[in-house]
Amino acid sequence: MTLPGSPHLVRLAGELRLDGHSLVDLAHRFGTPLFVYSQAAMLSAVAAYHQALQGRPHLVCYAMKANSSLAVLQTFARAGCGFDIVSVGELERVLAAGGSAAKTVFSGVGKKRDEMARALEAGVRCFNVESHGELVRLDEVARAHGKLARVSLRVNPDVDAGTHPYISTGLKGNKFGIAHHEALDAYRHAAALPGLEVVGIDCHIGSQIVQIAPYLDALDRLLDLVEAVEREGLVIHHVDVGGGLGITYTDEAPPAADALVGALLARLDSRGHGWREVLFEPGRSLVGNAGVLLTEVQYLKRGPTKNFCIVDAAMNDLLRPAMYEAWMAIEPCRQRDGIAAETWDVVGPVCESGDWLGRDRRLAISEGDTLAVLSAGAYGMAMASNYNTRPRAAEIMLVGDQAHLIREREPIQALMSGERLL
Ligand code: LLP
Predict the structure, then answer these.
(1) Considering 282, 303, 328, which residue would you say is the last residue of a domain?
(2) What is the C-alpha to C-alpha distance for residues 21 and 62, in angstroms, rounded to an integer?
(3) 126 counts as catalytic
(4) For 68, which of 64, 85, 133, 254 could close a Cys bridge (C-beta 3.0–4.6 Å)?
(5) Does one domain contain both 166 and 277?
(6) CA distance 374 to 11
(7) What is the CATH number of the domain that holds 203?
(8) Is any atom of ligand 1 closer than 6 Å to the C-beta of 243?
């Protein structure tokens, strides 16, 4: 049976298996809600980028906001990746997982002084700077610490990535980046500040992008700027095209990573920039289809207008449906004979009507069954919260025939640690 997403996930004799492991067995062994990841799927996703970039100076910086669990970071560090971080907390995770600061780029619109100082001390590869104010602040912090901060300017190319408004970031109405028409001035500004060294240019136009054309438009806009900046005697060492490549949740057909990379490299070549180092910041496309969220059916509640399948995972475990009305496939882990399919809204126990994982799904299920929400490896656990004082789920990484517990289920006591009674 064909499932959306990963070739690592198959249904054999009615039973869903990820890398050969029975998902029902994992749910029974480790409990639910449970995130399960295939390390092999992550490695093959990153290999597609690396292979397409072979022979070119390049760095794939995994955008760890997609899934920042330590064993996931360790997997990508060992595969030769750098990291794209957006907070000092993410930096500490990179270091704890054995990643290299020298391969880490620091993105984000709101970097604070202490975050800059820690990143300089750790020796990050560069800061992706998003405003004049940030240039001034970074210069001050760098000089105060006797450091030179390497900077790349994040340019807002004003291209439409054709994705959900909440995850579209490269339009001029977005908070991100320096407006294209102001960027040359910002480079002059950066060059004049003694605590800074200009090293690159970057952009990130959005997420879950399923076309190549917006990337090519953005790259063209960046290269126009590179040429203008270099005419003034500055050198731009690297071009960072950001992340954003989409995955298949249902019937989307995003380009393969190697097709996207190939098209961008061809455009760099045709414009005479083929020698330049290229950086990518993929998140979702490295981990999204490598993971599932397992959940157990608690109650089947039939109503006058809707039938509700109440499961033990909720919006606090997987926020994407509630937040973006994202459609994520939901499959029974073991198919049942003798039960008729009915239409269900799959909902969690959280006290919000917005707490749903899927609406109007045809499922043949009964209480106690295990369901898998597919393509949950990206922006699942990373966006999980403790709303309703719900402990965060456990996580499993499959490596060959081993199922490693990479994060234990959060103990309830941990949810109250750090709190004080009056
Ligand atoms: N670089 C920067 C500067 C970013 O802001 C992002 C994502 C990425 C790279 C990685 O993008 P990706 O390859 O994962 O698309 N929570 C949303 C997605 C938010 C993306 C934010 N920025 C979701 O669940 O759809």
Answers:
(1) 282
(2) 26
(3) no
(4) 64
(5) yes
(6) 13
(7) 3.20.20.10
(8) yes
